[in-house]
Amino acid sequence: MRTLNVKLSEFKSEIGYIGFAEYSNLKVTTPLDKNDILKFLHYYYSSNKVTAYQNKTDHLPFPFRTENLTSADIHKIYDNVLFKIKTIFRSFEKGWENFESDLKRFESNLESINIKLRELNLCYPCFMLTIDDFNPKSNKINGLFNEMGFIYDYFFFIIFMNPSGNLTTLEISYD
Q1: Alpha-carbon span 63 to 133, nearest angstrom
Q2: pTM for the whole thing?
Q3: CB-based contacts of 48: which residues, under 8 Å, 6+ apart?
Q4: Structural domain boundaries of the chain?
Q5: Do 8 and 20 form a contact (C-beta atoms < 8 A)?
Q6: 74-98: pLDDT as tens digits
């Protein structure tokens, strides 16, 4: 993941990175809305924090410039986020060599994610950002992508809350 001081769980994946980050030090007592998500993203994933984190790891930087995001950039999903992700993934088929075999592996990864979501007892609605919503030169995309040629084939970032009010993020990405 892209931040420190959280409990991380990473899955092995043949076609990308899958990771959960559990924020047990952060408790929410009211239902989340998009403005809460923007505050969370800015606090934990602001450009200066992710650049510092990237210097300590070999991960690509968080692709979004949180200070430029608005609530319109965040998808609020009321159920079955994995279906939404699979639908977006299917839209990449054109020009993707070996798409059908990669789709089967991606679907297998989604089954593992679904099991983990149930284990963590995560609640809907959840909130999602996907890099597919933006032009790579958008001011909402981290400038390092343009300067250094970093590219994600796909990047899904989902924020859930559990019944205790703790937030958990899910990142599904491939670079």
Answers
A1: 12
A2: 0.87
A3: none
A4: 7-174
A5: yes
A6: 999 999 999 999 999 998 888 888 8
